[in-house]
Amino acid sequence: MGEYAEFYVFESLKERNRWNPKPGVSSEETKKAFENMGETWSKFRELVSSLEYTDYVVLPFSGTIDVKPGSVVGIFECDFTLEEGMTFEDLEQLYQKEYGSSLMKNFQGTQFCVFKGERGDRTGKYTEMIVFNSLEEYNKWFMEDGKLSEKAKQAFDNMREIQDRMEKMYSYNTATYYIVL
Predict the structure, then answer these.
(1) Nearest to residue 58, comparing CAs of 128, 132, 140, 106?
(2) Is 107 in contact with 155 (CB distance < 8 Å)?
(3) Angle between helices 150-158 and 160-169 (to 10 degrees)
(4) Residue 44 has pLDDT above 90, yes or no
(5) Mind spelling out the 3-state secondary structure of the chain?
(6) Is residue 59 within 8 Å of 114, Cβ to Cβ?
(7) What was the pLDDT predicted at 1?
């Protein structure tokens, strides 16, 4: 509660590398862009207490992600113990072909995708993101105390087989919901 997160979205790894060619290294173009922000950037940096970061690559999925002011974004950092004989490539296929589509079908009006850490603190680890169009929409699925609404319980029951399979493999390192400003 009361925490903030900052997200930058790049069209590609090539574009990200143009701005940040190596972990923790800003290009001259990036430095100049921040200098051009003047006092605004300096004040912002004074307020930031944590510089932890992860650069993620979005795994392929069907659909789009549209995040706008007022959206509620859930970020779930996952740790996995895979099924015997399963590879992380198999897990990515499971997300792409079964879990993501099942979640969006049963949680109508939500958007879902999975990130894989490419640089930083969570390199090689997975993070799920679910987007609700508004706080009102979020409240249809979750109650004030964070528990599932009857509607959400039914959605999970409808996808019970794939949900049970996933729950055997993952645990959430952290789960945080943000309201987009």
Answers:
(1) 128
(2) yes
(3) 90
(4) no
(5) CCCCCCCCCCCCHHHHHHHCCECCECCHHHHHHHHHCCHHHHHHHHHCCCCCCEEEEECCCCCCCCCCCCCEEEEEEEEECCCCCCCHHHHHHHHHHHHHHHHHHHCCCCEEEEEEEEEECCCCCEEEEEEECCHHHHHHHECCCCCECHHHHHHHHHCHHHHHHHHHHEEEEEEEEEECC
(6) yes
(7) 64
pLDDT, averaged across the chain = 91
Q: What does the pLDDT average to over 5-19? A: 89
Cβ neighbours of 155 (radius 10 Å):
20
pLDDT tens by residue, 70-128: 999 999 999 999 999 999 999 999 999 999 999 999 999 899 999 999 999 999 999 99
pTM of the model: 0.87
CA 99 to chain centre: 15
105: alpha, beta or left, given left = phi > 0 and alpha = psi -120 to 50?
alpha
pLDDT at 62 over 90: no
